Prior knowledge:
The protein is built from 2 helices and 2 strands; from the N terminus they run E-E-H-H. By secondary structure, the protein is mainly α. It has one domain. Strands 1-2 form a two-stranded antiparallel ribbon. Strand 1 (2-4) and strand 2 (11-14) form a beta hairpin. It starts with a strand and ends with a helix.
Amino acid sequence: MLIVSSDKNKILKEKGDMIVNICMFFTVLVLHFATVYTIRNGMQMSKFALFHSEEFTNPKAAFALGLLITIINLSCEVANMLTTLS
């Protein structure tokens, strides 16, 4: 529940429900563990494409895919932390 003032809808105080905070904590924790695994997977994919380029018909695409997986999941993790902390 938010308590706001009448002056331009400024937030004065935030009273969080304990059940909602507990659910949010576990949801953020599960998302964090899922993204850590996916980021590690993307980094390993890029590393494999870099060191074993002869096994690919297009090693640049394989490296780019691993890099994109890593960058996208890192940005999701940062957005999740910023949203949770604010």
